[in-house]
């Protein structure tokens, strides 16, 4: 494994304690789920503005406006994958389509098999947060999250939930899968927010 950035410019984009491996590792907990377009549904639930659950079929979901974005990807186990070209639609498009209620400050991202990650609404609503269906102009491979994953490039990559199936709007914060298991609630790689013991007051649920 090469453990150095390829260019000085890449070096500047590398958060503290991270390295660039050769190749692009695939990381997840548990098995790769199958995708069945006829029965696949995407739910937006919790504190929606209307009080109703909103459900998308794959056809509706995949017809949201498409865009591309290049970003880096930082796993808390210290490797970074630089310069990924993701295609999909911004999380802000989903927020516009299914507005959250006025008290919503957090979201829970839910995946197949119950994997989850929580985000502050301000992190979810960043212009760089994307629901990605494509990587480098090709549909995602099964193990990278096909048919759709979230990409939150400014936070550690466990927040970039693969095989995403639902968003829950929350008025109060709640910990997701890794956040419950000792990882930092916020997860900013530039501040090396790796573990929950580093949390400052106000950075996590009580
Ligand atoms: N559904 C789901 N999404 C997940 C994970 C997981 O276990 N399940 N692992 C996360 C972690 S820890 C990382 S580093 C990235 C890895 O993404 P990659 O396999 O495309 O490199 O996916 C994240 N998304
Ligand atoms: Mo990770």
UniProtKB/TrEMBL annotation:
InterPro entries: OxRdtase_Mopterin-bd_dom, OxRdtase_Mopterin-bd_sf. Pfam families: Oxidored_molyb (PF00174). Gene3D superfamilies: Oxidoreductase, molybdopterin-binding domain. Residues 30-178 form the Oxidoreductase molybdopterin-binding domain. This is Sulfite oxidase-like oxidoreductase. It comes from Microbispora cellulosiformans. The lineage of its organism: Bacteria, Bacillati, Actinomycetota, Actinomycetes, Streptosporangiales.
């Amino acid at each position: 494994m090469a453990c150095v950035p390829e260019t000085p410019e890449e070096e500047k984009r590398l958060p503290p304690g991270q390295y660039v491996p050769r190749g692009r590792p695939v990381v997840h907990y548990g098995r790769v789920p199958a995708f069945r377009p006829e029965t696949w549904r995407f739910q937006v639930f919790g504190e929606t503005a209307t009080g109703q659950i909103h459900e998308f079929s794959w056809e509706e979901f995949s017809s949201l406006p498409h865009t591309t974005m290049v970003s880096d990807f930082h796993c808390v186990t210290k490797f970074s994958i630089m310069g990924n070209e993701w295609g999909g639609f911004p999380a802000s498009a989903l927020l516009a389509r299914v507005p959250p209620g006025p008290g919503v400050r957090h979201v829970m991202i839910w995946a197949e098999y119950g994997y989850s990650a929580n985000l502050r609404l301000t992190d979810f609503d960043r212009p760089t947060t994307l629901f990605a269906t494509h990587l480098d102009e090709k549909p995602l491979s099964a193990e990278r999250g096909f048919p759709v994953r979230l990409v939150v490039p400014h936070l550690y990559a466990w927040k970039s939930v693969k095989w995403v199936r639902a968003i829950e709007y929350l008025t109060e914060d709640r910990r997701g899968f890794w956040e419950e298991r000792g990882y930092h609630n916020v997860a900013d790689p530039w501040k090396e927010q790796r573990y929950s013991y580093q949390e400052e007051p106000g950075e996590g649920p009580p």
